[in-house]
What we know:
The chain has 229 residues and is α/β, with parallel strands linked by helices. It has helices at residues 11-28, 59-69, 98-108, 129-135, 168-174, 180-190, 193-197, 202-218, 223-227, and strands at 2-8, 34-36, 41-42, 48-50, 55-57, 74-82, 119-125. It is built from nine helices and seven strands. Helix 1 (11-28) packs across helix 8. The protein starts with a strand and ends with a helix.
Amino acid sequence: MKRLVLVGEGHGEVSALPALVGKLLEEKDSRHTLFVDHEVVRKSNPVKWDKQAARPDYSKWISYVTLAARRREVGGVLALYDGDFSSFPAGSGSPFCAATAAQAMAAAALAAGAGKTFSLAVVFACVEYEAWIIAGIESLAGKKYQDGRPVLPSNLKFPPGDPESHGKKWLEQRCQGYRPRMDQKALTELLDLNVVRAKNLRSFSRLDHAIDQLLAAVGPRNRDDLIGP
């Protein structure tokens, strides 16, 4: 098995991301190709805008990827960030586009060996990680945390409007005492991923596809693969 190292930004995601990616791998990885490294590389604002040179500065991002790639038996690196930017990089004046930003970051990571010694995927949750939790709200309503606290009212339904416009604020208003650092992992563990998928969030579909790509890139080729169509 190869190691999948996660790169994230929030305190809550440090514990929630391994839970989420672990659930996805449990679904998809019957060959046990990858295992999740639970020690997330936590770094915020990975790309800066160099005002003097009038161009993005990827040096810190490359250093984060390099740090992740130094761990033993690394097969892949998966970076997940909130996509709540108005411009990217901040201060550049260029409107944020998740696909464009991810492609640019992946290209910059070639300098750290991405695509050669390990595989890399970059995913933005639009607008925040909580949008994925809210997408599965029906699977959380009426449940309780391990400490006995109710998670959400039993009659709570998915909110109308753009499914990727609901974030932390919406959850805080309905999940009494919501604390990302303590509760994101617990909510993720209770989440039914098929309920999330049914909302057709582009960012979650991208995460789903990124896991598939990493498994395909890292997975061993067996005899059936070699002679198959």
